Amino acid sequence: MATAAAQRTAGTQPDGDGVPDTADTADTAAYQRAFDAAVAADERVEPRDWMPDAYRATLVRQIAQHAHSEIIGMQPEANWITRAPSLRRKAILMAKVQDEAGHGLYLYSAAETLGTGRDELLDKLHSGRQKYSSIFNYPTLTWADVGAIGWLVDGAAITNQVPLCRCSYGPYARAMVRICKEESFHQRQGYESLLALSKGTPEQHAMAQDAVDRWWWPSLMMFGPPDDESQHSAQSMEWKIKRHSNDELRQRFVDICVPQAESLGLTLPDPDLRWNEERGHYDFGVIDWTEFRDVLKGNGPCNEQRITQRRRAHDEGAWVREAAAAYAAKHTGTAGAAGHKTHETGAARA
Amino acid sequence: MTATGPATVPATAALALGDDALVLSHRLGEWAGHAPVLEEEVALANIALDLLGQARVLLSLAGDEDELAYLREERAFRNLQLVEQPNGDFAHTIARQLYFSTYQLLLHTELAAGNGPFAPLAAKAVKEIAYHRDHAEQWTLRLGDGTEDSHERMRRASEALWRFTGEMFQPVEGLDADWAGMEERWLESVRDVLTRATLTVPEGPRTGAWSAGAGRQGLHTEPFGRMLAEMQHLHRSHPGASW
């Protein structure tokens, strides 16, 4: 539902394209005041409401990057589908990778409410103009990595994403509610899979420890640069897109993980990790921000491989998408056996 | 299972049906992250999961699902050669799905209607298979009646896999079905879809000395061994471990 304040602004824009029709600065100022008031009152901004251009651009960037991360994030886990060691684990992994494709679809839809298109966003991903989460540029070298990703990477994602369920932009917030439910399930399964390894044979235990050793620091990097270097944070928090700073969320994650690692019977690879009575939090070591920046720049272990596979899937699938479009054009508006309908009901038969 | 407990389930039949589902599920799982459009990532994974679910129930009737999946060698698998065929391009995957799901739907409808030991699980699987069959039909129409390129690819795929379709109607020990009647209905159904997709029914042989019922006897095609090597290597590397 559109908010009261936003409805007032939308009421002056019957075309609902979210862009003021004139450059009238008095109108723009009034829209801005109504928008600010709605955000301040914790009301949701909806697609037909007026919003500042920069707010729109920030959301497109963030939601697209989030969608891209779901899609690229399928690769490291899909890498183990054909080798999963039991049929039960194989079914769980397949369901998870399928959910990720579904999350990508929700998120592209949410981004589309802001006036962009999935094709355009995919094009930006493929050409490197939009990013995806740096974590997916690390390789899955053993089966235990699948469990470590579930526990740590999904755990970090949830810590980041639960506050987004209250994000000021309605479609994004609603997508996150659905996504977080499924992610929590995956995270529990990842933890359970690591637990089975940790309590298994000595070889399995070693495999689990090695995976945690490799995924711990990259997971901490998922919260982004430290607060004093995060260029978008202040504005995003003001707009209530973001509710907590990178460092706050990172600390929350560490505090959650330490006791979980203990109950898993695994250690975290940080000699500086210890409880700080005074702060009521765990202190932890310094993150290697050089590595973080390197991976972001495209020089991580799998950047090239990930984007090449994504481009190849897209390019090799072009003929399939063209076939579907050609078929739809031929059969639009007919009560054909396929029952396929498109919005271009007026289009002539080819 | 009801009065007719698992003990009365013919193991040969459970293995044949279970291996079909297991192997095709594995092939579809290979598409993850490679599909032509995101919706197909979801659809192919969905079908793969349905099939894996069916496989787990069926293999469990014959023994321990993981022992059967991971510790048998190629010659002990009883799946059709059709389902072990490599994915090829999207048209090959769709042709394989069309041929198999049409067969599977006919067989399970018959099993569900009877009162044999497979009736309850067939009744559940029929709902999934009807969806798989619809998905394959819709894509066969789109590829066959899409562009010139897609038409040609769909034609090649439907012809390339045709020779593996005869073995589906070799009677399976322990399965009470009207095999000849099913084969007729299968031909009719596939002809109908291919015709509507502006394709013709392939003319090549559907059985040969080697392919007739070969998979059901543990005689497989070469790519199958490599598929099993990948599927089984981790499980075999840790004997006795649980996961």
Automatic annotation (TrEMBL), chain A:
Enzyme class per UniProt: oxidoreductase
EC number(s) per entry: 1.14.13.149
Keyword Oxidoreductase annotated: yes
Keyword rRNA-binding in record: no
Record-linked InterPro entries: Aromatic_CoA_ox/epox (IPR052703), Ferritin-like (IPR012347), Ferritin-like_SF (IPR009078), PaaA (IPR011881), PaaA_PaaC (IPR007814)
Basic and acidic residues: compositionally biased ranges: 341-350
Positions with biased composition (Low complexity): 1-13, 331-340
Top-level taxon: Bacteria
Location of the region described as Disordered in the Swiss-Prot/TrEMBL record: 1-24, 331-350
Single GO MF annotation: phenylacetyl-CoA 1,2-epoxidase activity
UniProt entry keywords in alphabetical sequence: Oxidoreductase
Entry-linked PANTHER family: 1,2-PHENYLACETYL-COA EPOXIDASE, SUBUNIT A, PHENYLACETIC ACID DEGRADATION PROTEIN PAA
NCBIfam families: PA_CoA_Oxy1 (TIGR02156)
Protein name per Swiss-Prot or TrEMBL: 1,2-phenylacetyl-CoA epoxidase subunit A
Organism of provenance: Streptomyces pyxinicus
Upper taxonomic lineage: Bacteria, Bacillati, Actinomycetota, Actinomycetes, Kitasatosporales
Gene: paaA
From TrEMBL, chain B:
Pfam name, any one: PaaA_PaaC
UniProt entry keywords in alphabetical sequence: Oxidoreductase
Molecular function, one GO term: phenylacetyl-CoA 1,2-epoxidase activity
SUPFAM superfamilies linked: Ferritin-like (SSF47240)
Domain of life, per lineage: Bacteria
Entry's EC annotation: 1.14.13.149
Designated name of the protein: Phenylacetate-CoA oxygenase subunit PaaC
Organism field: Streptomyces pyxinicus
Gene: paaC
